UniProtKB/TrEMBL annotation:
One of its GO terms (molecular function) is RNA binding. It comes from Punica granatum. Residues 264-438 form the Helicase C-terminal domain. It comes from the Eukaryota. Its EC number is 3.6.4.13. This is RNA helicase. Keywords: ATP-binding, Helicase, Hydrolase, Nucleotide-binding. SMART domains: DEXDc, HA2, HELICc. It holds the Pfam family Helicase_C. Residues 59-224 form the Helicase ATP-binding domain. It catalyses: ATP + H2O = ADP + phosphate + H(+).
Length: 694
């Protein structure tokens, strides 16, 4: 496909200093001298990073301000350096811990291992990390701890004032993940009780003013009993980046297939441009795997034009080995193409990128409280994201960014900023976490951006029906507290609790583990027939959940063999994760007093347990429907069974689903057939007001 490129008029502005608020500008007099730590070459690298010039300034501000907001371009060293500076300055003395949060699991692992390497220590000792279901820390030794914002939120359930931390750095705050937003509100409360706790809010873009206003309250007087006096006013520091100029190119006409357009653009760059790696932004595992495969095939079979080109995928859920490949330097004479989700937009920095190809899309969550459906959809990114993506090309030398959309579209149609996740998500998990932390008036909570009252009401309704909240909207005992304690979607947690009375907890724990990962199937385009045939070997008439049980049993019987997985088109890495998660869920279940019992072949019990968790997602097939159309019982939305489900084309009369993905239609993922009478049995309040539904 031919592409016509024209250079853009606007230079990407990576940092807009005018938004500074109480901006601290430090002269070079503040530059710190070498601290003489660690190994020489790594030390040199560290000193070359833009934040290094601000080392003393940062330490001074953290010492004298309860909250410090640090804005700096991606790659300037915020995440990897600041925790080390704090440690060197003694913030982790006396057994205290420095925490640094990230919205993404993969970023947590990557930065923790990088920092451990820079400090020359073993990961899991002085430097560790915790993500859900994986704790690589040592209670006595760990001084710098990277963790997801979600995990820190969970830690508050056991330790509401987060007393083991001296400094908490909320990183990637511009991403405005749900957990970041909730944390910021809670940390502001904690600071009132623990003024000595220092907060650092690090962000790649300039929402600094809004953040600063959020942390400013009228009666925040300085604490003068300490020396120097501690200011409760937030400080803002802007780290000047050293990004090189990035030339922007736009397509002249809109493209219809951005995967194909991205691939041709990669070829074009490889043909015409000097050496330097390429970063391509696509949206999800499917299109990324497809693009990687096509680029590599072309390089293998193709003529001289593709020689030296190799592509690697980057998305969450990659194994450690796959992650390492991405970060390892490109061999001489080769050109690396990393095809990524928006994880490479700001969370991770790859060295050597000179060219960026931006599809203009990312996968985003959207929740509609009217239909009560949460979708993951491919949606246009914002201007702010587009600028971040372009900036990734200017790390090592002047770069180029190819936008697969027109300049007209960028200027006139792209929205300036993204919408915070809290305003486009289902709030069931959020509400239960706040309730568990004793925040009763959720609408009155100090939100950075308020969620919609409709979404809140929907969440309360579901939690009430799940038996998690009582008439006063307080957590019920024990069910509410137990559901809150299990680190899973409340619907999955409720399913686990229900399995206790139904004597099928062994089976349901396996199902819960599978439902909490992306997919156990190996996905590859072009071999659909083989994959479908393989799936049939495990397919259960009841639906996907029981099919998962069959796969799990097969995997155990094979001795957890990777060959067996390969043969059956099952993702080995996913299955290993399932086994690990299941083991942890088993421990949590035991702690909650759930008796581990198997129902053997009685799949009625399993179906009932699933219904007890997911009754809100019940659907009924449209009578006389010839194309498998279902309607949701609650809101009469049109939905279809996803082609990847074993119930695709089987179309039982009644089903419940786990989630919806939306492409040309709204598709239900992870579907099981149910007995409709169990709906009124497990959730009488929820279905009573509907009148007769059967
Ligand atoms: O947080 P920020 O985006 O400001 O930068 P950072 O993540 O601290 O990265 C600073 C530098 O560390 C980058 O320029 C990379 O060169 C390097 N780095 C790396 O090589 N490997 C990693 N896994 C993480 C960072
Ligand atoms: Mg960072």
């Amino acid at each position: 496909m031919a592409q016509f490129w024209k250079p853009g008029a606007e230079k990407p502005q990576l940092l807009d200093d005018e938004e500074g608020g109480v901006l601290f500008v430090f002269s070079s007099a503040f530059s710190s001298s070498s601290s003489g730590y660690g190994y020489a070459s790594i030390e040199k690298q560290r000193q070359r990073l833009p934040v290094y010039k601000y080392r003393t300034a940062i330490l001074y501000l953290v010492e004298t301000h309860a909250t410090t907001i640090i804005v700096g371009e991606t790659g300037s060293g915020k995440t990897t350096q600041i925790p080390q500076y704090l440690k060197e300055a003694g913030w982790a003395d006396g057994g205290l811990v420095i925490a640094c949060t990230q919205p993404r699991r993969l970023a947590v692992q990557a930065v923790a291992s990088r920092v451990a390497e820079e400090m020359g220590v073993k990961l899991g000792e002085e430097v560790g990390y915790t993500i859900r279901f994986e704790d690589v820390t040592d209670t006595d030794k760990t001084r710098i701890k990277f963790l997801t914002d979600g995990v820190l939120l969970r830690e508050m359930m056991d330790d509401p004032l987060l007393t083991k931390y001296s400094v908490i750095m909320i990183d990637e705050a511009h991403e405005r993940s749900i957990s970041t937003d909730i944390l910021l509100g809670l940390l502001k409360k904690i600071q009132k009780r623990r003024p000595e706790l220092r907060l650092i809010i690090a962000s790649a873009t300039i929402e600094a003013k809004a953040m600063s206003a959020f942390f400013q309250t009228r009666r925040r007087r300085a604490v003068e009993s300490v020396e120097p006096p501690l200011s409760m006013e937030p400080a803002i520091l802007s780290v000047e980046g050293r990004g090189f100029n990035v030339q922007i190119h736009y397509v002249e006409e809109p493209v219809s297939d951005y995967v194909q357009a991205a691939i041709s653009t990669v070829q074009l760059i490889h043909d015409k441009e000097p050496y330097g790696d390429i970063l391509v932004f696509l949206t999800g595992q499917d299109d990324i795997d497809a693009a990687v495969k096509l680029i590599n095939e072309e390089a293998r079979n193709g003529g001289k034009n593709s020689s030296g080109l190799f592509a690697l995928p980057l998305y969450s859920g990659l194994s450690r080995a796959e992650q390492e490949l991405i970060f390892s330097p490109t061999p001489r004479g080769k050109r690396k193409v990393v095809v990524s989700t928006n994880i490479a937009e700001t969370s991770l920095t790859l060295e050597g990128i000179v060219y960026v190809v931006d599809s203009g899309f990312s996968k985003q969550r959207f929740y509609n409280p009217i239909t009560d459906i949460e979708n993951l959809i491919v949606a246009p990114i914002s201007k702010a994201s587009a600028r971040q993506r372009a900036g990734r090309a200017g790390r090592v030398r002047p770069g180029k960014c190819y936008r697969l959309y027109t300049e007209e579209y960028f200027l006139n149609e792209m929205s300036a900023e993204g919408i915070p996740e809290i305003q486009r998500s289902n709030l069931v998990s959020c509400v239960i976490q706040l309730k568990a932390l004793g925040i009763d008036n959720i609408l009155g909570f100090d939100w950075l951006a308020s969620p919609s009252p409709e979404a809140m009401i929907r969440a309360l309704e579901v939690l009430y029906s799940l038996g998690v909240l009582d008439d006063d909207a307080k957590l019920t005992s024990p069910v509410g507290f137990q559901v809150a304690e299990i680190p899973l979607d409340p619907m999955i947690s409720k399913m686990i609790l229900a399995s206790n009375q139904l004597s099928c907890s062994e089976e349901v724990l396996t199902i819960a583990a599978v439902l909490s990962i992306q997919s156990i199937w190996f996905i590859e385009r072009g071999i659909q027939k083989e994959m479908d045939e393989a799936k049939l070997r495990f397919a259960a008439a009841e639906g996907d959940h029981v099919t998962f049980l069959n796969v799990y049993k097969g995997f155990l019987r094979s001795g957890k063999s990777s060959k067996w997985c390969y043969k059956n088109y099952i993702n080995y890495h996913s299955m290993k994760t399932v086994v690990e998660i299941r083991e942890q869920l088993r421990r949590i279940a035991q702690r909650l007093g759930i008796v581990l019992k198997s129902c053997d072949r009685d799949m009625q019990a399993v179906r009932k347990a699933v219904t007890a968790g997911f009754f809100a997602n019940a659907c009924r097939i449209e009578p006389y429907s010839h194309n498998g159309m279902y309607k949701t019982v609650r809101t009469s939305q049109e939905v279809y069974i996803h082609p990847s489900s074993v119930l695709f084309r089987v179309n039982p009369k009644w089903v419940v689903y786990q989630s919806i993905v939306s492409t040309d239609r709204q598709y239900m993922r992870n579907v099981i057939s149910i007995d409709p009478s169990s709906l009124t049995e497990v959730a009488p309040h929820f279905y009573r007001q509907q009148g007769p539904i059967f």
